[in-house]
Amino acid sequence: MRYVIVGYGKMGQEIEKILQKQKLDSYETIDPDSIGPIHLHHLSLKDFINGDEFFNEYFKDTVFIDFTQPDQALQNIQLYAKNKANAVIGTTGWYNHLPKVKKLVKDSEIGLVYGTNFSTSVQKMFYLNNILARLTAGDDYDVTINEVHHNAKKDVSGTANTLAKDIIAAPNSIKSEAIYGINGAKGKHQLTISSDRLVGVFGEHTVRYANEFNGDTIAISHRAGGRTAFAQGAIDAAGFINGKSGIFDWSNVLRDRFNNQLSK
């Protein structure tokens, strides 16, 4: 199997370290704006694909791992679909285009995995949060989510958005809206997401469920120790999607695995 890392930022470099450590030398990286090792192509994704005259044959056993920018994600996905290339999309912030992407994937018959967070530990937090959301749905629980990341992160955490979405989607949930910050009194149908930025923090998320009747609070938290878990998860997702067709949310893939594990 061959890996192509698209985007040689912090995540792309972490993925490369793991591939080297695992002695998986069949990889290349693409980033027109970065300076790096011999494996790095200073090309756009479009130029890289167009420059490979043997693309269709040579890339049959290849998966692209894409950690770029939200404004690039849809354009890159269109290139993967056009050129019959399977991909893992670690970039977030493009999900308003998800219906269009699903059609692209279906029509092109490629395989694509996307997710707000590829860390297996975070996926276990999603799993636990989904259970808590169901157990507290319909009761008098106030809910808040706090996320902390390094001070270079520009957008609200996709992981926090996923946690909120699962709470709202829980059967019988009275929560119907996630609000960012405080703009007045909080309604019973709202949950809040607060964000902090602090140098050196890879990612911290805490969800609190507070019972309005008796004051009891249930909290679940995850603190990332580095980027390794995220990078390894993306590599695992690449192995999963290689040779497959269809679009997969990595959370759903792992949720099925967790269900099978608990049923034994």
Largest sheet: 7 strands, parallel
Poorly predicted residue ranges: none
| CATH class assignment of the largest domain | Alpha Beta
Order of helices and strands: EHEEHHEHEHEHEHEEEEHEH
Based on helices, strands and strand pairing, what is the structural class? alpha/beta
User: Could you say what the CATH topology of the largest domain is called?
Assistant: Rossmann fold
- Shape call: globular
Strand order of the largest sheet: 3-2-1-4-5-6-12
Query: Mean of residue pLDDT?
Result: 88
Helical run tally: 9
Distance between the termini: 32 Å
CATH-defined architecture of the largest domain:
3-Layer(aba) Sandwich
The level of helicity is 25-40%
Count of DSSP strands: 12
- Radius of gyration over C-alpha positions, nearest whole angstrom: 20 Å
Number of discrete domains = 2
Sheet-strand content, in percent, reads 15-25%
* CATH homologous superfamily title of the largest domain: NAD(P)-binding Rossmann-like Domain
Could you explain how this protein is built, in words?
The longest helix has 17 residues, at 120-136. This protein starts with a strand and ends with a helix. The protein has two domains: 2-118 and 227-263, Rossmann fold (3-Layer(aba) Sandwich); 120-223, Dihydrodipicolinate Reductase, domain 2. The mean pLDDT is 88. Helices cover 39% and strands 24% of the residues. It has helices at 10-21, 45-50, 55-58, 70-82, 98-108, 120-136, 158-169, 228-241, 250-263; strands at residues 2-6, 27-30, 40-41, 62-66, 86-89, 111-114, 141-149, 177-180, 190-197, 204-211, 217-223, 246-249. The chain has a seven-stranded parallel sheet, with helices on both faces. A five-stranded mixed sheet has the order 8-9-7-10-11, covered by helices on one side. Helix 4 (70-82) packs parallel to helix 5 (98-108). With 264 residues, it is an alpha/beta fold.
